[in-house]
Amino acid sequence: MAQNAGPIHTLFDWDETVQPGFTILTWSEYLCRKGMFDREALMVIQDLFYRSRQGEMKYEELLSRSASIYGEGMEGQRVQDVSSATTEFVDINSSQLYEFAPRMFNHLDKLGIKTTVISGAPVMVLEAYAQKYSIDQVFGLDIGVDSSGRFTKLVRENPGVIEQKASTLLKLPADARIYLAFGNSLSDLPLLLLG
Q: Which residue of 90, 142, 160, 193 pairs with 156 in a disulfide if CB–CB is 3.0 to 4.6 A?
């Protein structure tokens, strides 16, 4: 007798797949305007993205270095304050998503297909998008938090880089069946090979 197969999943990268650009950059700029992100760290992140566009830096290096600088820029900020800002940021930036994305998330949800995002975008932002668009599970750039509820600069997880994206896949249910996978770079290869 055949056993029932597990739930069907669709895997998504976020940046340049679901929305143009990089969330870490627009989110850091947004937080800086609100006084919740270090201005010098923002300038370094902006410079990293500029250098990457000029071909001076490989993609994986960009993802690693921008995550570290993001942690430095967040250091000392209260998690509660930053969390409150995510809803407004997502409301403002939802119009920037590729046109297909909200409809696809809704359609997959109606079909009962689980949606998982694995990305180097900040996890707090991905969680806010997940609430808005029926996304079942998100894994994103995660920064440490101290006992007083403030961010440390420690990068706990960065599933934007290929090795961590691959290891994040191990967190899916063992019986998950991957139906589709969407990505835009070599870093997304672990997702795409399963789709």
A: 142
